[in-house]
Design goal:
257 residues; alpha/beta; 8-stranded parallel β-barrel; 12 helices; 8 strands; binds phosphoenolpyruvate
Length: 257
């Protein structure tokens, strides 16, 4: 394994930042700083309420893809505050984060919840970005492999081989998210290799080798090159540094030409 994907993946997770007005201003600025390229995938995950404004502002830039940060697994009903996968699709999203560490650790999403969400996302033919990663105490206890294995296996649940082939896996160690502390490239590579191995066991090498495994956790323009150069790192998921157009444009311009 270890062959590089032809198209690195750059995701910008805005979390609970940038309402509709700020989203429009971001897209206008970013479009002037980052020209469309066909050798990479760039996906934004704005708050769901900013999706429509983002799309309007990004008319003429189909290379800027759209996702949502979370969905509930039911299609519709009495679930105050939630949105569903069909709604996200109707609004123009093609990707959905599932199991982001803030959903797991702030809002209490269990592995079983994440699996239900992944299933609902796949049912709408949207691309799930399954986020996994250990907490600091789990790393210090030597439990990285146990935690990541559990989150990948339970998160994918009973998905068929073909559906697994269309997912993205994001390795995001919790201790690196929003902390300014980035995993060393070799540490990211080690966990990405573990995940690749799990995928090979599950769906075979021919399908597993094309599944993007991306890294997230305090990625910025100052560390993007070394992370993208690390074996098995097929792209990045960026939180804080994706909020600033110039900084995110620098990140999205990194990597092979
Ligand atoms: C994230 O939200 O997925 C993330 C990686 O955040 P940050 O880049 O701010 O650590």
């Amino acid at each position: 394994m270890g062959a590089r994907l032809a198209r690195p993946f750059f995701g910008g997770n805005w979390k609970m930042n940038h309402g509709p007005n700020a989203a429009r201003a971001f897209v206008e600025a970013f479009s002037g700083l980052y020209a469309a390229r066909d050798d990479r995938t760039v996906v934004f995950f704005p708050p769901a309420i900013s999706l429509t404004e983002f799309l309007h502002a990004a008319q003429g830039r189909p290379d800027l893809r759209l996702g949502v940060q979370d969905v509930y697994w039911e299609r519709e009903g009495a679930f105050t505050g939630s949105i569903s996968a069909p709604m996200a699709k109707e609004a123009g999203a093609a990707f959905v984060l599932a199991g982001h560490s803030e959903r797991r650790h702030v809002f209490g999403d269990s592995d079983e919840d994440v699996a239900r969400k992944v299933k609902a996302i796949v049912a709408e033919e949207l691309v799930p970005v399954l986020c996994v990663g250990e907490r600091l105490e789990e790393r210090e206890r030597g439990d990285v492999e146990t935690v990541v294995r559990r989150q990948v296996e339970l998160g994918l649940g009973p998905l068929e081989r073909e559906a697994i082939g269309k997912t993205v896996i994001a390795y995001e160690p919790v201790w690196a998210i929003g902390t300014g502390r980035t995993a060393r490239p070799e540490d990211a590579s080690a966990v990405h290799s573990l995940i690749r191995g799990l995928l090979v066991d599950r769906v075979g090498a021919d399908v597993a080798r094309d599944i993007p495994i991306i890294y997230g956790g305090s990625v910025k323009s100052g560390n993007i090159d070394e992370l993208l150069a690390a074996p098995e790192v097929d792209g990045v998921l960026v939180g804080g540094a994706s909020l600033k157009p110039a900084e995110f444009a620098r990140i999205c311009s990194a990597g092979p030409r």
